[in-house]
Amino acid sequence: MKSANQGFSLIELLIASSVGLIAMGVVGSVFLSGYQAANKRSLELLLEQDVNDAFRLIKEDVLRAGYVSSGASSLKLSGASNVVYVNTDNNCLAYAYDAPDGRRYNEVIYNSNKSKLVYRSSDVVKTMATACNPTDAYSLLYEKQIVVNKFDIKNTPISSASATSQLIKITLAAHLKNDDSVSTAKSIQIKTRNWQ
């Protein structure tokens, strides 16, 4: 007669342990690859969201450029020929408008030395000579993680029989500091509202 309390043999235990370890390894690798894919996707979303937010701020500001609350002619920087002063040499936009809290002078500047896009808004009067200087400006993108590769501005005048305006095309390319494979390149076109 055979004993009913017979246990597993050493070989059966080793086989069962090996199968268990292989199963745990497969499940772990699937979990790890899923985690890495989710992490990369969240970084891509961070980059996309930051670039979209920067474009939204620039577009809203440029559409306000030249607005004067008194209804007089459009406001321009002193010496500028257009509502939005575009300096293509240092990739800068400068403009002014009346806001509820007073007149605002705003600048968007690409600082190529630091590979970042900066923004400055102040109530200090700006002219063509004093605009587009990146001191005391803050980064439009999360500079600890995002590097701006490219920021180009193209300015095309639009004319009618009685007034002129501008069509501004802005191209922005950026990537993550620690991962060049996570990158984006976008462009927008903005037609200034306040004709001169």
Short note summarizing the structure:
This protein is α+β, with helices and mostly antiparallel strands.
Describe this structure in words.
- This protein is an alpha+beta fold and 196 residues long.
- Helix content is 28%, strand content 34%.
- The protein is built from one helix and eight strands; from the N terminus they run αββββββββ.
- It has one helix at 10-64, and strands spanning 85-87, 92-99, 102-111, 116-122, 138-139, 146-159, 164-176, 183-191.
- The protein has a five-stranded antiparallel β-sheet with strand order 1-2-3-4-5, with helices on one face.
- The longest helix has 55 residues, at 10-64.
- The model has no long low-confidence stretch (mean pLDDT 87).
Radius of gyration: 29 Å
- Mind summarizing the main beta sheet? 5 strands, antiparallel
Low-confidence stretches: none
Distance between the termini: 108 Å
The outline comes out as: rod-shaped
> What is the H-and-E element order?
HEEEEEEEE
pLDDT average, as an integer?
Answer: 87
User: Count of helical segments?
Assistant: 1
Protein name: Prepilin-type N-terminal cleavage/methylation domain-containing protein
Keywords: Membrane, Transmembrane, Transmembrane helix
Transmembrane segments: 13-35
InterPro entries: N_methyl_site, Prepilin_Pept-dep_B_prd
